[in-house]
Amino acid sequence: MLLVIDVGNTNTTLGVYREAELLTHWRLTTNPARTVDEYGVHARNLFALAQMDFKDIEAIAVASVVPPLNYTVKRMAEVYFHLTPLFIDHSTDTGLKILYEPASDVGADRIVDAVAAVSRHGSPCIVVDFGTATTFNAINAAGEYV
User: Is residue 92 assigned to a domain?
Assistant: First the structure.
């Protein structure tokens, strides 16, 4: 199974997938002051409530727009899941070509939104994310992020 973690400015969302099926998800308040162990205990409790086992997680992918939390999330994955997480950014091979300049300004949240939209609905498309900041993302007919 795959654990996905979306670290946003307001909320951190965790989701567990088996293949393309979302099995469950949880939302926590994003708090850069939380420790590795606090995030680990939260995750362990949520998994227990869902009657899921940490050992079933084979990979972890993280989309973070809160750089101060990246180390904490990385260590939580290593300590509690014994896995090294993949952090998504503009250089990650997602199959999505980013034409926006500079590509480094496109946040991980916007990248995964675009990849999911193209995967589910094809291109061209416009993706609107109503997070802490409302963002509009355009993918052209060639499947490129513009």
Answer: no
Q: Find out whether 122 and 19 touch, Cβ atoms under 8 Å.
A: no
Q: What is the pLDDT of residues 90-135, one digit of tens each?
A: 999 999 999 999 999 999 999 999 999 999 999 999 999 998 989 9
Whether residues 73 and 140 share a domain: the answer is: no
Full domain range(s) for residue 105: 97-145
- Clarify whether residues 107 and 53 are in a common domain: no
Looking at the structure, tell me whether residues 52 and 110 fall in a common domain: no
Q: Is the pLDDT of residue 137 over 90?
A: yes
Reported pTM: 0.93
109 an active-site residue?
A: yes
Q: Looking at 6, 93, 105, 109, which residue is catalytic?
A: 109
Count Cα neighbours of 77 within 13 Å in the Cβ-side half-sphere. 22
In terms of residues, how long is the chain? 146
